[in-house]
Amino acid sequence: MCVKNMMSMKSRWTNEENRTFESALALFEEESPERWFKIAAMIPTKSVYDVIDQYTQLVSDVSDIEAGLVPIPAYLSFNLSPNRSSPSHRKKGLPWTESEHRRFLLGLEKHGKGDWKNISRNFVVSKTPTQVASHAQKYYMRQLNGDKDKRRPSIHDISIHLTGDSQCFHDYNNQGDLMMLFDSGYSHGYPYTDSLYI
C-alpha cells in the first residue's frame, strides 16, 4: 500500500524539466559516481528517486520504440501553419552545379539507375536521394529528347561514355568538346576525378 501511494503521488514532469533532465544526462557520464544526485540538483522540484524513475521510464520507452512496440503517430495530412498553406511559399531547390552533375554521372555508372541512395551517399553528398532521383529523371528526359541544337543549353546535356579504361564526358554545350577525366585521388572510397579538355 505504501508503494502504491508513493506511485500515485508521483508528480508529472514539465517540458522544461524534461529538457533539463535530458541535458543533464548528456552532461554527466554514466560512470560518474554521483550522477543522479548531480542531475537532481539541476532540477530543484525533483528528488533523486524521481530522476532515477524518469531515467528508467526513458530507457523503457526507447526499448519499446526500437522494438517496434510503439505505433507511429497518425499525423494530420494537411498543414496547419498559416505561413506555408500556399504552394508559392515553398522553398525552391538550388540548381545543380556542373561538378555535382559529373559526380552524379560517375555514381550512375558505378551504382546504376535507381540506386539513388548510394549515389547520394558516395558521389553527390550535397544532395538527398530524392534530389538525385529527380535530377536523374530530368537527365533521362533530356537524353531521350532529340534535336539538341534547338534547345537552350542545360547541365543535363553532359553525358558519360566509357572508352576502354578511361571515362570521357561529352558536353554538347561546348560544340562537342570532349572532356576526359583522369584519376587524381580518392574520395569516399571512389576515385576522385579532375577534368582536362582535349
Structural overview:
The protein has 198 residues and is α+β, with helices and mostly antiparallel strands. The protein folds into two domains: 14-66, Orthogonal Bundle (Arc Repressor Mutant, subunit A), CATH 1.10.10.60; 98-197, Orthogonal Bundle (Serum Albumin, Chain A, Domain 1), CATH 1.10.246. Helix content is 42%, strand content 15%. A four-stranded antiparallel β-sheet has the order 1-2-3-4, with helices on one face. A hairpin with a 6-residue loop joins strand 2 (166-171) and strand 3. Helix 3 (35-42) crosses helix 4 (48-66). The radius of gyration is 28 Å and the shape is elongated. The protein starts with a helix and ends with a strand. Mean pLDDT is 74; it is low at 3-8 and 171-198.
